[in-house]
Amino acid sequence: MTFARDMSAHHAQAVDMSVTMVKRAADPAVKLLAQDILLTQQAQIGQMGGWLMAWGRPLASQEAPMAGMDRASMGLASAEDERELQHLPVNTAETRYLVLMRRHHQGGVAMAKSALKTVKRPEVRAFAERVVAAQTSEIQAIDALLKKRMTGQPPAQAQPEMPEMDGMQHE
């Protein structure tokens, strides 16, 4: 239950950033990536909301989503980062989106891997496994796009890997 709420909130930010880039991106590859993330993660938010309703659980709790967790370590962008995507020159915004989404996906993978350590429901376990596979694949695609845009150090080394999230509680 906690995983569904937290991952929904995490996905919501990816959807918001992707909406911005679907509207703004000039690079067809960035626009396609943003559209894929937007559609996939919005559908997954609906799926997780459907689980909560089917389980007779509220869509929100008294605690804010991801309460007590470090937003940066979960790959969440700051409000300023999100605003910048709307106003930076398009080429700069595209690169910034790729960097932000790479880190965001690293956080999503870490959240899903953490859930796999404790979650018992088979549908949630299968979902978490799909998140790990899909977002790991998208990180590789983002790396390829960033490599085309940047010179020097490969993107995989430019961003630190996300830490393990052993302290997360999942029901």
From TrEMBL:
Coiled coil: none annotated. Residues 150-171 are annotated as: Disordered. Residues 153-162 have a biased composition (Low complexity). Residues 2-145 form the DUF305 domain. It holds the Pfam family DUF305. It comes from the Bacteria. This is DUF305 domain-containing protein. It comes from Deinococcus phoenicis. The lineage of its organism: Bacteria, Thermotogati, Deinococcota, Deinococci, Deinococcales.
